[in-house]
Amino acid sequence: MSKSLTGTLELDVERLRRERYAKLQAQMAADGLDALVLLHGPHVAYATDCLPIAADATHVSANRPVAVVLADQSQPCLLGGDPDGLDVDAHPAVWPDIDEGAADLGALLDAILGKTARGGRVGIDLMTGAMRRTGVLSAADITDAANTMGAVKLHKTIDELACIHQAQARTNRAMASVQEALVPGVRRSELAAVFLRRLREEGIDANMIDVIFQPMARRMADGPRTTTGHLAFPTWWGDPVYAEGDLIWVDAGSDYHGYASDFGRTWVVGRPPTPGEQRCFERWLAVMDASYEAIVPGATFAEVCAAATAADAAHQPDGERPWMPHFYLVHGVGIESAEMPFLGTDNGPDFDAVNTLEPGMVLVLEPAIWDDGTGGYRAEEIVAVTEDGWNPLGGGHPYDPFEVPT
Amino acid sequence: MSLHLQRRTRAVDALAAAGIDMLVVGRQDHINYITGAHQLWTAGARPFGPVCTLNVATGEIFLLSTWDEGVPDDIDLDHLHGITWNGAIIYQRLAANPGMAAAQRVGVDAWSPGMAGLLSAVAPKAEIVPVDDVLLRARRTKLPSEVDAIRAACAVAAEAVEAALAHPGTDAQRLAAGVEAMALAGSSTPAAEPRVHGPIVDFSCIRFHYEGGLGRTAGGAPPEARPHAALIAACVPGATGQDLRQAAPEGDWLIRGSGMGFEPPVINPRYGKSEILEEHMVLSVSASTGEEYARDTVLVTESTPEILSSEEP
């Protein structure tokens, strides 16, 4: 670990906007783009700081804001959304999901893009069906914006780290209240109610996933069937009532200023962990320690995965790795709840061998230990890769009711 | 026949009539409509990706899901594709999908340059056609069980409205009370962004795939004198967007479909003049005049519109 960043993690909104926009312009130049047209909410937020609304996809997309970034222009254009207080060239709202609205969007884009709309190279992240039907940007040289956006969001600025730190700290505090409410007989809906109220009280108005409190079957064979033959997680169907001794895997994520948190813990209802459950937790700690040790700039993804795997090898006679096969040992987090880098996925060993950790990447470590018949332990921790190691974000959260050995 | 199979029949008929061989969709509401699967709700619109495919001729479905929890029995485990992070695996799955290689017309619910390239590679003979309008047209009128589901969702949203109206404190505290009440009543997933602004309160939720919602003004007029009363009364079969404009009050107003979330038609002062209402549509009808705002969820019937969000507040 390097010296603590936490004291410096105060969000400076003006600097956040300025630095992101400069990165975006530089990446557009590197990618040879004349313009970017962005409809995906987190991308619009990256370009303009018009924050995504945390509502159902159908509502968010109906009159979604659109961002247009022209090469060498000092500010982005924002179509719709709320431009109040933003450094943007504001334009009227559009409704890109309906044909009439898409036609209006096409006319606005032609006016904003000028001759770029006729043969210029334009990166775009999404077109609605209505935009395709009405021929929006049909005369431009269209390319996918995914690579450009992927490149700018991979390394976080100091203010992006501050946002993730704040999101995580606030989610942690809300979850502390939820854990107090976890008693035998309580329902999932009651825990969700506490969480959603407490998030609002923490100043967070963007809950990003329907919060998961999954009671784990002690034997995989008693849980849902899976394509991997391994664990089903996260599932969310129904409104379970928790009984004493239930093992609950928790997963939640909410946004602060457009940046995601990711909370993961394992709880036991109404009693201390059994020795077997505690052993799973201690195996998980050992995997985390080994992973932390391996996180330095320049380390390959494969090196981190190998360190984590070695730490639990004595408990894995079949050579399984200590994370869920449909997921990863590590995923990134930022304007998306899961984004690059991904370590230990089904992209395979070749992918992990050629990709390396770099300063500014944010890592969510989520190993999972399973001892079939006993249950298992899973939790998540967020760190930022620094020049000489890593730094924790979010201020930490206890592992209760599990005991960290001294 | 179970509700999701009735819905799927509607979608398949509409796609067949549009000459579509294969459907490739990524939007959760379209996937829910066709499969009936209960998948994790996440906020915001996702990028376009091939989450579900439907062979229009055979009815064969492949769905992205690592487990069968929440997936109806008619989609077997061998028709589930586990979560993947690997573009090559996505390509292989689509290429191996029976009917894809020979498809002449592949319907999609959104488009991106990257996905268009992928689909052209796996379906080289196919024209890639946006069919969001075809699917939404099929979804426009509601089956009786859908109306029941919407009514139940409205009752959940009403709990939130009631709590926020009754709760003392700041707007943020009242909003928190509304969100909490909605979760306790049966939904921890919003449809639109919840709104508490002084006397104005509006909540909506997604419950078992369907949206319910309503809005009120504290101390506002009785139902027959609310800002949207004349608009609701005008929601009869055959009414055009133009008719509805004439019934609208001065000020802001919106009529839009409500089912598995926000749906067409969209009728407001700017759009939807030539839309025509049909029996069995469900609409969200909202209007503001002066300081007062009101919204209800309304079923178009052969006679007087039925307010599905009728539970007071």
Describe the structure.
The complex is a heterodimer of chains A (406) and B (313). Chain A is an alpha+beta fold. Chain A has helices at 13-31, 41-48, 57-62, 99-113, 129-133, 146-154, 158-181, 188-201, 275-294, 301-312, 348-354; strands at 35-38, 66-70, 77-79, 89-91, 121-124, 127-128, 141-144, 206-207, 212-215, 247-252, 254-256, 259-260, 263-268, 330-332, 339-343, 362-365, 368-371, 375-378, 381-385, 390-392. Helix content of chain A is 34%, strand content 19%. The model of chain A has no long low-confidence stretch (mean pLDDT 96). With 313 residues, chain B is α+β, with helices and mostly antiparallel strands. The longest helix of chain B has 23 residues, at 144-166. In chain B, the strands form 3 sheets. Chain B has a 6-stranded mixed β-sheet with strand order 4-3-2-1-5-7, sandwiched between helices. A 5-stranded antiparallel β-sheet of chain B has the order 12-11-13-14-15. Chain B starts with a helix and ends in a 6-residue tail after the last strand. Chains A and B meet through helix 3, helix 4, strand 6, helix 5 and strand 7 of A and strand 4, strand 6, helix 7 and strand 12 of B.
Please report the total strand number of chain A as a whole number.
Answer: 20
- Give the strand order, joined by hyphens, for the main sheet of chain A: 4-3-2-1-5-7
Helical coverage of chain B, percent range: 25-40%
Q: What is the total tally of β strands of chain B?
A: 15
Biggest pleated sheet of chain B: 6 strands, mixed
Would you identify the CATH H-level superfamily of the largest domain in chain B?
Creatinase/methionine aminopeptidase superfamily
> Uncertain segments of chain B of ≥5 residues (pLDDT<50)?
none
Helical amount among residues of chain A, as a percent range? 25-40%
Note the total helix count of chain A: 11
Question: What's the layout of helices and strands?
Answer:
The complex is a heterodimer of chains A (406) and B (313).
Chain A: H1 13-31, E1 35-38, H2 41-48, H3 57-62, E2 66-70, E3 77-79, E4 89-91, H4 99-113, E5 121-124, E6 127-128, H5 129-133, E7 141-144, H6 146-154, H7 158-181, H8 188-201, E8 206-207, E9 212-215, E10 247-252, E11 254-256, E12 259-260, E13 263-268, H9 275-294, H10 301-312, E14 330-332, E15 339-343, H11 348-354, E16 362-365, E17 368-371, E18 375-378, E19 381-385, E20 390-392
Parallel strand pairs in A: 1-5, 3-4, 5-7
Antiparallel strand pairs in A: 1-2, 2-3, 8-11, 9-10, 10-13, 11-12, 14-15, 14-16, 16-19, 17-18, 19-20
Chain B: H1 3-17, E1 22-25, H2 28-35, E2 52-55, E3 61-64, E4 80-81, H3 87-96, E5 105-108, E6 110-111, H4 113-122, E7 127-130, H5 132-139, H6 144-166, H7 171-185, E8 195-197, E9 200-207, E10 210-217, H8 229-233, H9 241-247, E11 253-259, E12 261-267, E13 282-289, E14 292-299, E15 306-307
Parallel strand pairs in B: 1-5, 3-4, 5-7
Antiparallel strand pairs in B: 1-2, 2-3, 8-9, 9-10, 11-12, 11-13, 13-14, 14-15
Helix pairs in contact in B: 1-2, 1-5, 6-7
